[in-house]
Amino acid sequence: MKIHKYPSRSDWSVILGRQKKGVPQNVKDTVSAILSDIRTCGDAKVLEYVRNLDGFDTDASGLAVSQEEISAAEACLSTDLKNAISVAAGNIRKFHEAQKTGDVVVETMPGVVCRQKNVPISNVGLYIPGGTAPLFSTVLMLAVPAAIAGCERIVLCTPAGKDGKVSPAILYAARICGISEIFKVGGAVAVAAMAYGTETIRKVDKIFGPGNSYVTEAKQQVSQVCAIDMPAGPSEVMIIADSSADPRFVASDFLSQLEHGRDSQAILLSTSESLVEAVGDEIRIQEQKLSRQSIVDVSMEGSMAILFHTEEEMVEFSNYYAPEHLIIATEDYGSTVEGIRNAGSVFLGNYSTESAGDYASGTNHTLPTGGWAVSCSGVNLSTFMKKMTIQEISQSGLALLGPVIETMARAEGLDAHANAVSIRLK
Q1: 107 assigned to active site
Q2: DSSP for 231-269?
């Protein structure tokens, strides 16, 4: 872990090394070819890619996960895991249920009534990565709020292994969320199929979910025809800690983030040199016990600790970085958090581990990365909804408002707009 001591503000961007890098041309070209193939040829190309990329050979009927497979998944899981998934789903449901808001109705002037109505997005597609770390927790994070929002159709795509089987935990999580439309398709192929539609996988209106660089690029490219949840990049955590923090806890959160992937980043900000040294020692001890140590070794190269003179400087640096996850382990964390403006999700105190938000506390773990927290929110109930405005104007209301509209329309040179009012007033 690199240590930077008391850097000047002009050096911040150089230290972080997180300037937005362009997508490699080979990734862009590969994704573009996949999207074009599936948009043009539908199922035929989906099956070809599934066979070539995943090693799973099937016909179109085999792309869909059967009800028998969904039911059988439950028998493959331990009682402890099923109970854990159920508790997590319950907490996520409670938190997102509380985000419901009613319609807004305002009479802006006599006879002019304006209304804002919450409308669920009809068809949503969820992409869930499989492979060595099947993210069944992401099923809960996306499917639970989608169901609460009232989305009519929820489609889930996730890759199958060469044997054609999908992670039982993903299928179980999908079942308890009420999802039955599940397809064995992964990567950019899944994004293309959901965005454009094929004979087997009907088009959706918005796509959600994390993925590798190919999935991220595919979502960006299809966003011209299908909405996506947010821009995405490597996962990251920032920890603001003073001498009151427990170095064992800080090290564990540092490492938990780094095991996500080789391009993940963890950054510790502190006013205490002794804490930074103790955290470094703990990282070396704890890392030896990790099953994904080879991944951590790589992601550690881009991670660091930075020493500052004051807490105010740490808060300013954090807002500059705009982390996906922010842990505040300071003595007066309630005061520290008041200065935070840019973060995807914040964790307060020594016992609020970031793992809680990843799995089961109730908040959503689908969050803006790469600095997008300066302008984007994480997934929440409103992400699955749209706001529609409605207005009703009476004859007397138009008599009051009409002259205002006429004046403004004529000033813009739009006579037909003015006439649409005038003809009614006459």
Answers
A1: no
A2: -----EEEEEE-TTS-HHHHHHHHHHHHTT-TT-EEEEE
